[in-house]
Amino acid sequence: MWYPSKAPFEPNADGIVDFFFDLDVLAGLLRDDRDRVAAVVISPDHMHLSPRWYERARTLLAEAAVPLIVDEVKVGLRYGPGLSTAELLDADVWVTAKGVANGFPTAAVGGSRTLLKPLREVSYTSFFEPTVLAAAERTLARVATGEPQHTVRETGGLFVEHARTALAAASLPLEVAGDGTFFQFVPATREVKKAFYKATEEEGLLFYRGDNQAVSAAFGPDVLDDARARFTRVCDRLAPLAAAGPVGEEARYLAAWSVMDGLREAERDARQTREWVDRFLDD
Question: How far apart are CA 117 and CA 7, in angstroms?
Answer without folding.
Answer: 34
